[in-house]
Amino acid sequence: MTLTADPTGNATPTGNATPTGNATPTVDAPPTGNAPPTGNATLTGNATLSPRDPFGGLRVAVIIPALNEAEALPHVLAAIPSGVAMVIVADNGSTDGTGNVARAHGAIVVREPVRGYGRACLAALAHLEEGAASGIHAAVDVVVFLDGDASDRPDEMVRLVAPIADGSADLVIGSRTLGQREAGSLTPQQVFGNWLACTLIRLIWRVRFTDLGPFRAIRASALRDLAMSDTDYGWTVEMQVKAARAGLRTAEMPAGYRKRIGKSKVSGTIRGVFGAGTKILYVIGREAVFGPRVSAAASAGTGSSGAPDRPRTEKRPGT
To answer: Is pTM beyond 0.70 here?
Structure first.
């Protein structure tokens, strides 16, 4: 998909790629003069970081899929650390002015009107790839995903990216299970579903995870190689399963978690809970049965760096 600007400032896909779904994603750039969101983060890890270069020289893009999150987004965007290269809000058919709020706070808005969490993420990634290919912006090194409902802690982003910056990981999951979470922020069905999915991943691919949390960072080149395709509830588990299968170096960071602002579209409805649980199990089964086999290097105990190292999950202490 190639993005070209029209006279109104919106970008329209052109070229041979066919967007996922029945509608065409569009892109709205932030208004001129708006500064990128800023905030503070605690620095940990082995990378050489500084307040002026919190991500160790890496260009970091933040992707926030959002559906009717106008009330929560100002809190989310204000807490994103300074130093990120760009923030993209993937507006997934909102009717409450989510896109306008995002633009007003300096974010790029990618509009994907066809509903689906993964579909929104894919639309944002298409903007990243095509923007870099066409010279609109430089390529990024790391992509961070987080939700737009203010449940995640964007101020922990520097710690999340640190294992990638210091070269010890390709994918880092912000684990709500290991971190401090507000009472009631995760429903019992979410806790059980996470446990079940992570247990199956450990049994099938011998990689330990404790959570399928949305707050995560991944090396852009690794993400590209995973060839993500899920358009809805299976996005997070697809990424972790494909990373395990490919022998990527994985890590987990204890991440704080709060009650969301507004009602959940997934855990807040019976349909959402059933749909998410069914899709997560389906993705695990599909990848186990039909997915490509683990590479010879990974089977021999060699990680993506070439050093002896089974795909693993590293636990980093919180601060």
So the answer is: yes
DSSP per-residue codes, the chain: -EEEE-TTSEEEEESS---SSSS--EEEPPPTTPPPP-------SSS--BTTBTTTT--EEEEEEESS-TTTHHHHHHTSPTT-SEEEEEE-S-SSSHHHHHHHTT-EEEE--S--HHHHHHHHHHHHHHHHHTTSSPPPSEEEE--SSS-S-GGGHHHHHHHHHTTS-SEEEEETTTS-B-TTSS-HHHHHHHHHHHHHHHHHH----S---S-EEEEHHHHHHHT----STTHHHHHHHHHHHHT--EEEEE--B-PPSS--SSTTSHHHHHHHHHHHHHHHHHHHHHSPPPPHHHHTTB-TTSSB--S-EEEPP--
Which of 124, 167, 114 minimizes the C-alpha distance to 144? Answer: 124
Q: Which residues contact 205 (CB under 8 A, 6 or more apart)?
A: 241, 244, 245, 294, 311
SS3 of residue 39 by DSSP: coil
Tokens 């507004």 — which residue? Answer: 262
Q: Could you give all domains of the chain from N- to C-terminal order, each with its CATH number?
A: 2-315 (3.90.550.10)
Instruction: Identify whether the C-beta of residue 162 lies closer than 8 Å to the C-beta of residue 49.
Output: yes
CA distances from 53 to 84, 90, 212 (A): 10, 26, 29
Q: What is the pLDDT of residues 146-191, one digit of tens each?
A: 999 999 999 999 999 999 999 999 999 999 999 999 999 999 989 9
- The conformation of residue 8, written as its DSSP 8-state character, comes to T
